[in-house]
Amino acid sequence: MTVAKVIVDVPAKQTNRPFDYAIPERLSRVLMPGMRVIVPFGPRKVQGFVMDIVEESEFPKLREISELMDIEPVLNKELLLLSDWLTEKTLCYKISAFQVMLPPALKAKYEKKVKLKSRSQLEQLSPVLQRHFMNKDIIPWEEVSGGDELSLIQKAIANDLLEVLYEVKERIKKKQVKLIRAAVSKDKLQAYRLEIPSRRIKQLLLLDYFIADGLPLERSKLMSMLGVSSSVIKGLLDKGILAETTKEVYRDPYKDREIIKTMPLELTRDQAQAIQPILSSLKEEKHDVFLLYGVTGSGKTEVYLQSIQRVLELGKEGIVLVPEISLTPQMVNRFKGRFGEQVAVLHSGLSVGEKYDEWRKIQRKEVKVVVGARSAVFAPFENLGIIIIDEEHETSYKQEDNPRYHARDVAIERAKRYNCPVVLGSATPSLETFARAKKGVYQLLTLSKRMNERNLPHVEIVDMREELREGNRSMFSRVLHEKLQDRLDKKEQTVLFLNKRGHSSFVMCRDCGYVLQCPNCDISLTYHRYNQQMKCHYCGYESIVPTTCPECASDHIRYFGTGTQKVEEEIAKIFPQARVIRMDVDTTSRKGAHEKLLTEFQEGHADILLGTQMIAKGLDFPNITLVGVLSADTMLHLPDFRSSEKTFQLLTQVSGRAGRHELAGEVVIQTYTPEHYSIELAGDQDYDQFYQREMMIRKIHKYPPFFYISLITVSHEELMKVVSVTEKITRYLTSRLSKEAIVLGPVASPIPRLNNKYRYQCLIKYKREPNLTDALKAVLDHHQQDIHQSGLQIAIDKNPYILM
Ligand code: ADP
Ligand code: ZN
Ligand code: ZN
Fold it and tell me: What is the whole-number distance in angstroms between the Cα of residue 541 and the centre of ligand 3?
């Protein structure tokens, strides 16, 4: 076994295959598939993944692997193989497939340096360059990359005087602590103790600690416990009486939290019925996909917990996916409370180091259960027994960058390989999933009632046009106003929900109608009262708020719409006594802020929780008896065929926040389009009816689940180029696909310009197109050069969730 097949970290079509490398003698016994290595590639050194190790190569002369980056594989066999599937499914490069499976800490970063090859040749360098290398052999690239010296460097490299190094920099180290232990036997310690004069109290103390069966202890703890200084320890270290070792420790973000141990609850009849098929598929080691369909509070989580319990009894492992914003401490505690130390948590709120630590626990088989957001679906378990996806309809399970995978697809694919079940849970399943469950592709399990027969909250829909007609110009309808006042009087809590951060708070001129736009994107800027800034939510562009209209110079320039900040001010005016906690991207960007605000609310330090999407999920506080949705329609008008579905799901979710406990709940939904079926049916909490209506519309317009769709978005700085490339792609695809396929385009994207690049798209709707993947690959291949040289971008999404 002397040849390693390596996928190198050079994302390009030509390098999207394994390269053969010789394994140097010193690595021959340690190298394994799934490890990362550094290999020479052309003139530089790059990172790579060892796919396989074989006897020989068809190439006569191989270069050698330079370095090993891992001492144990970071990808197991199954994940290595899964990369083939992922590459095919999402049309990404192999290297991207590997990288998405790893925690960010393991994603390599390169540092470029220039090295003088031999000091004896210093004089041969041009004087300008000599200066840099006077007293060092290696300098950072930045030191010379500025200007004129580049060509000199180029020449020196050609003459073999200098070389460019690409050093892979690992962003994170394992966190280690220094431990002090006795280096000699107890007898020797005793003997040594006798030699020490009695005035050296601290040394004696230290020795006594280790003589009295003292276990290795962290240096700092030892110092504080015994009150000895670092020099005392050093003295004994130098003498070889004590020794220092290092131990890897984990940064545990949950370590200071007290978690109450919970026991399995006795299942209700519904729950027992629902769990039975899951347990039998576990027993028979069968791959099945279940849809656990039940309203919020119907006891789905208990079903998850008891399924996992069985998985653990079988000696296997489980993955639980939860949408990022629902991954609250409450949620995590339900799993830690049941399975304690066997649970690792992976979500984006963790620091890079913390994530890495959690991942290591999985890799070292120190945990059996992972609770995490989307990317946790790649948890490196090797004996998977179940994958659970809670709130399966959530669009955050789809990754919008390369590789554009959907966690549900990955879960099903991995589960197939382990012959284990997948459980999808939701109160408002995605249409695709529910349709599959109805067809019997997935098994439908239903929990039809809320626990303890608690009623769903009463929902009232308020027509805001009517309010306006009757002279109410406030953002609160009379009904909501009245109920809010009532809750304040009764000291009960209210959740106020606003769709999207500052979604419609734009600045408009009342004289000419001009709306302030981002200069880089065709999108209106959002007004942020807090720092008096206009901000583009797509590219981050910021500018000050103008006092006069840039178009007509009128000073009748005004802010429109309702951002969370504006609502907060309005509440302060109408209900001066109310204590408000505002949760949006602005107030929760600091680490831990999210949790802190929620805890404050839970502990009753506020009467009203005001927020965006992020408060729609996972809140389960007993004192919430009123939920108000300020504007239900903002999402309805997005150019997206799923906008009704998303509106329905969100409103249903939000409504579910009220009255989960003893106190009854009420919901008020304010809208300008009360007659829209997604709002009306969300009011009735009638998923089945909504499903029927929406399916009809999807069928008429040939959208999923009746058709598959793929979206190609082309972007570039020059409009003409974008149009002509998109046109070419559209024509090519039309010729390659069957007559049944519908190829729409070229058309400008709903956001026609982003970050100074024009955007055009081509949408394909189809049922069965065996040629599609090949055709799409051909599109990418054909434009390779343009992509690498002129900055042309072609994004292909085989199952888009964002159509903008
Ligand atoms: P879901 O996940 O469907 O929103 P939960 O699992 O959170 O529902 O259940 C709602 C509430 O009912 C929780 O407080 C939970 O502890 C409780 N519960 C769930 N199953 C049972 C059971 N079998 N017996 C008693 N209480 C239960
Ligand atoms: Zn104007
Ligand atoms: Zn912008």
Answer: 5
